[in-house]
Amino acid sequence: MPPFDLSLREENVGVVQPPPGVTPNFINPSSLQHIPLIANIVLISVSAAFVVLRLYTTGLIIRSVGVDDSCASSTVKFLLIRYGLGRHLWDVPFSTFNDKFLKFAAICVTFYGLSIMLSKVSILLLFLRSWPQKPKRAIYATIAVVVLYSFIGSFYWLFACQPLEKFWDLSITHGSCSEWPKINIFSGVMYTVTDSIILLLPICMLRKVQLPKWEKFGLGFVLMTGGFVLVISIIRVKTTVDMSRSLDITWEYVYSGIWWMIEMHIAIVCACLPVARAFLRKHFTSVVGYNFNTFVQGI
Fold first, then answer.
1. Which H helix or E strand runs over 177?
2. Residue 174, class by beta-carbon neighbours within 10 Å (0-12 exposed, 13-18 middle, 19+ buried)?
3. Domain 34-298: which CATH class?
4. Is the dihedral of CA 153, 254, 198, 181 positive or negative?
5. Where are the domains of the chain?
6. 41, 134, 287, 290 — which has fewest CB within 10 A?
C-alpha cells in the first residue's frame, strides 16, 4: 500500500501532503472526473448494443459474456468518483477517502476480473462448440488457467492485508499488507498471455481446413476476434506499472482505469462478434453471401 500520512485525518486536510508550493483545494480542485464519466457511458452503450445483437441473434439469454459484471464494475466506478477519483490525493479530504475509496476499488476489481474471465471462457467455449478440428486439451487448459488467475486477481484483496480491513481503512496502523502493484502486474501479464493464446488458437485450428481463400480468411477473422483485446491488455499493464510508482493514485488511476474499462468492454464485444455473421446473413445477404453453414449452426 502507498505510504499515506496517517496523522492527517481532519476534514480539512488531504489524504497526503501536497508537493512543495502546492496548496490543497477542497472547494474547486483540478479534476479529471469527466473522463471516466464519459468513458463509462460510451463503453456501456457500445458493449450493451453488441450484447443485444447477440441475444437477438441466438434467441437465448447468454450470460457468459459477463455483461452483468461489467455494468456492476462501471457503477462502482461512479462511486469512486464520489470518493475522490479524478482529483489529486492532496485535494481529497481524509474523511472522504478513508474506508470508502479503496473498499469500492476492491469491489470494482472483482467485477472487472469476473467479467474478463466470463468473456474469455465464452470465446473458448465457442471454439469447442463450433470447430471439429479443435485442440481440446489446449482449449481446456487455457480455460483452467483463465479461471484460476482470474479468481486470484479478482479476490486478492481478501488476503492482501492482515487484518482484512487494513486494505481500505488507513487508520489501522497494526498488521501488514502485501504489495498490491505486483499482484496487479502479475494479473496483467496473465491477461496478456491468455489473450495471445486466444489469438493464436484459430491459426492452429484453420491449418488443416480446406476452404476457399476468402472463406478461410473470414472464418479466421471471426475466430480471432477474441485476441484483439491483446493490444489493450498490454497498454493496461503499462499504465498499471506507471500508476504503481505514484502516490497520487486517485489522479493516476483515471488513466489506468480507462484502459481497464476499455479492456473489459472490448472483451464483451469480442465475445459477441462471432454471432455477427449470422445476423448479417439474415439481414444483409448480399453483403455476406458465402456459405459457412457448419460454423453458423455451431454458434
1. strand 176-177
2. exposed
3. mainly alpha
4. negative
5. 34-298
6. 287
